[in-house]
Write a structure and sequence with these properties.
This protein is an alpha+beta fold. The chain has a domain of 117 residues. It has 2 helices and 7 strands, in the order H-H-E-E-E-E-E-E-E. The radius of gyration is 29 Å and the shape is elongated.
Amino acid sequence: MILNNKNKKGFTIIEVIVACTIISISMFALMEIAQKGLTLSQFALKKSQASLLLEEGVEAVKSIRDNNWANISSLSLNTTYYLFFNNSTKNWVLNNSNVTSLNGYIPSYPIDSVFHRNVTINSVNRDINDDIVSSGGTLDPRSKKVDISVTWNSGGILNSKSISFYIFDIFN
């Protein structure tokens, strides 16, 4: 059977429409994949930044301890503290106020209005073998448990990372 030119033109238009549809669907799928990739990259960036802020917090608390154990031992237990940096003395300070300016100190909270970091100091108890215990035992005034947490909002979801560690009065 021989097809005339009229039928051939119609067949070509259908091929063009099908090809355009396939290309359009493929482009939308690729755009969706690219968008998901960007979202995941942004989340990974925030998570990495939060990890660095936790590490900085650990080092800041150790620096405060190294300057004077009384700066740690005099803090109220189970109270939320915020880190500040004194640019003139080059020392870190813990304060239970999160105001943006504290007696000339540069706040490290909130960070870029995205991250919120806080520090909590807790007591440490030891058993008769001098091992740290979670309950009971005897209070050890030369040891403290430190909890640092960083929270941030990403895509309407509150995310957080935290770390706990012990510090000791190593210079006395």
